[in-house]
Amino acid sequence: MNDIISCDYLIIGGGAAGCIVAKRLAERTQGKVILLEAGRNDEADEAALYLDCLDQQDEHYDWGYVAKTVEYGGGFSIDYARAKMLGGCANHNDCAFLAPLAGDLERWRTAGADNWSARWMERCLQRLDKQIRVESSPVGTDLSQAFIDAAKRMGIAEKDFRQNPGSGTGWFPLNVEGRLRQSSSVCYLHPLNQLPENLQVITNCHVQSLVVDNNKVSAANTDLGRIRVRGETILSAGSVNTPQILMLSGIGPAQHLRDMDIDVVHDLTGVGANLMDHAAANITFELYQESPAWNLTPCESTLLMRLGQQCGDPDILFHFVLRLREKYVSGNSFKHVAHGVKIAPNVARPRSRGSVKLKSPQIGVAPEINLNYFSDPEDYDMRTMLGALRIAREIGNSDSLKPYFKREITPGLEVMSDRNLESYIRETCETVYHPAGTCKMGRAKDADSVVTPDLKVKGIDGLRIADASVFPDMVSVNICNTVMMIGEAAADLISGEYKLG
Ligand SMILES: Cc1cc2nc3c(=O)[nH]c(=O)nc-3n(C[C@H](O)[C@H](O)[C@H](O)COP(=O)(O)OP(=O)(O)OC[C@H]3O[C@@H](n4cnc5c(N)ncnc54)[C@H](O)[C@@H]3O)c2cc1C
User: Fold this and answer.
1) Which atom of ligand 1 is found nearest the CA of 94?
2) For 185-231, what is the HEC assignment?
3) Average pLDDT, integer, range 454-459
4) Least confident range of 3-7, 11-15, 479-483
5) Collapsed DSSP state (helix, strand, coil) of residue 252
6) Does the annotation count 319 as an active-site position?
7) 15 C-alpha vs ligand 1 centroid, how far in Å?
8) Taking CB atoms and a 6 Å cutoff, what residues make up the pocket around ligand 1?
9) Ligand 1 mean position to 238 CA, how many Å?
10) Closest ligand 1 atom to 299 CA
11) Which CATH number fits the domain that encloses residue 479?
12) Residue 112 has pLDDT above 80, yes or no
């Protein structure tokens, strides 16, 4: 492959984290920085830039992945949207923008994010807040207000989540200005013709593999040619594609690489393992009337709560969604309704772990994504979801929502026992698209970790990872804000602005 260009810092993937790493490194170093993005330029693309315009599975903006919900025992495949454009998934997500909870970051430190101090994380979040505009109390519909009122009737406090993170109910803060998304491409890179001189953004450039010479990454092979790197390469291709690129480069679990006929460069068992996601189950309701017209997004309000009376971080994250796009299955019969809504709880900190594996040594072949929902040996995830569905049902039957809700569609009032509800959850579970942890951060001696707390890939020089794949544990809230925080943190570590311990 011909060399086409060279640089000091190469960032692969212009998504939520990658755009931030690229911009900050260009600002803070003299080195030449190149950001490569496989997808299209979002700058003049209204569908990408304005909230609720894009079909998330549109093949022009998405990798078109599918994922298996459960590895064994009746799993099925679901569409697993992963954006392919500058801005990444932050340009086709729902813009719910919640900061990680202090308890989440505390758990990260326990899990091996040594010296990721609360004070440093706070600084990274403050820098984000200066860059990204957030609508903290968007004007919502009466129906979403009724959901909030129903939660309040259960004794949950209403709050502004920007001021006061943690358990409570209220409006989702949204990273939008007007309808314009505040993704990291919009807020850090646009306008592209005014970038720092030492930063080059190349879109429609698909990275196929890394070149490792004498244990150091020296270049990336792309469909446009080979790009040489004098300094560091930073993988920011997201929780599915970052492990895929590593494995295609011979870095990953040795046996799996041999099975794929790939020469092993470095045996690293954690690559593609530990996949975490916020699985969703739905209780759906038919409305007496058409769903009210929402202003910004159909998912306006939320509830974060802890099951039972114990104090501590919430263990369920609810989304109240003002539309039903899917067909709902109950038993074997499809039920269609004209007007419906859903209350969709997620297990906030799931214990089940899935995987991303290669299906082929070819870059063009989608990897195998196995979400492995509800598989943890203690059955914590299923027990939590059962409790969450019962609460969702209670909310749906509350006096606040009764005037709007004609009937429960799914699972339906005939599905009452834990056993039947559990089958319903396994048969109909969905995702809110929060994959994380597939190259998790941990201590050097933790065999499952892929990067050490400085985000360096273990055993390979000149290579770091900065995206959702490094999460050592799941955060209790929607993850984009945390991923962007990782972008800021990575830039601190690489530029030497922050030194770990
Ligand atoms: C439909 C949907 C709704 C969501 N809603 C919310 C929400 O409301 N709130 C929230 O907090 N989170 C939400 N999320 C999750 C959130 O957007 C993601 O977790 C976050 O964007 C992940 O950031 P990332 O940097 O890890 O990866 P991404 O943002 O996915 O960026 C990765 C980038 O790398 C590029 N890339 C991949 N492979 C290559 C390659 N080989 N060569 C070059 N480039 C490559 C991709 O095209 C992509 O642009 C949602 C996600 C989806 C999909």
Assistant:
1) 8
2) HHHHHCCHHHCCCCEEEECCCCEEEEEEECCEEEEEEECCEEEEEEE
3) 98
4) 3-7
5) strand
6) no
7) 6
8) 12-18, 36-39, 56, 81-85, 88-90, 92-96, 206-207, 236-239, 241, 245, 433-434, 467-468, 478-481, 483
9) 6
10) 8
11) 3.50.50.60
12) yes
- Using alpha carbons, select from 63, 90, 93, 61 the residue that is nearest to residue 79: 63
Task: Choose which residue among 12, 89, 275 to substitute to test ligand 1 binding: the one with the highest number of ligand atoms within 8 A of its C-beta.
Answer: 89
Same domain, 367 and 449: no
How many angstroms separate the CA atoms of 80 and 319, rounded?
18
Determine the pLDDT at residue 316: 97
69 within some domain:
no
- pLDDT tops 80 at residue 349: yes
Does residue 37 sit in the same domain as residue 108?
A: yes
Q: What is the pLDDT of residues 165-220, one digit of tens each?
A: 999 999 999 999 999 999 999 999 999 999 999 999 999 999 999 999 999 999 99
* Look-up of token digits 């006929």: 261
- Among residues 332, 292, 302, 501, which one has the least CA distance to residue 412? 332
Amino acid at 234: I
364-383 tens-digit pLDDT = 999 999 999 999 999 999 99
Ligand 1 center–CA 354 separation, angstroms: 18
The residue contributing the CA closest to ligand 1 atom 2 is: 93
- Check whether 326 has a pLDDT greater than 60: no
Query: Within this chain, do residues 213 and 339 fall inside the same structural domain, yes or no?
Result: no
Q: Span 342-359, mean pLDDT?
A: 97
User: Same structural domain for residues 285 and 328?
Assistant: yes
- pLDDT higher than threshold 80 for residue 160: yes
Residue at which a domain ends, from 431, 459, 475: 431
- Pick from 242, 480, 486 the residue to mutate for probing ligand 1's pocket: most ligand atoms within 8 Å of its CB: 480
Beta bridge partners of 414: none
State which residues form the domain around 30: 3-62+82-133+178-271+439-495
By three-state DSSP, how is residue 133 classified? coil
How far away, in angstroms, is 88 Cα from ligand 1 center? 4
pLDDT category of residue 52 using cuts at 50, 70 and 90: confident
Dmax (CA) of the chain: 69
